[in-house]
Amino acid sequence: MGNDIKWQKSSFSGGGGEQCLETAESNGQIFFRESGNPKLIITTSREKLAAFILGVKAGEFDHFVN
What we know:
Elements: E1 8-9, E2 21-26, E3 29-34, E4 37-45, H1 46-57
Antiparallel strand pairs: 1-2, 2-3, 3-4
């Protein structure tokens, strides 16, 4: 993964900079990392991310934040 990756944070992330989940895309792969530990990167596909987002929208993961 090169230095040309453009990481994006949610506008809902905490203001301290250490409470952020960042995401990026390169060559059809989606990457996630925590701003507090940027060397640990999770990679997934667009299809898997789309399925996860549909689950989030359906409320399937609400128990993690409530």
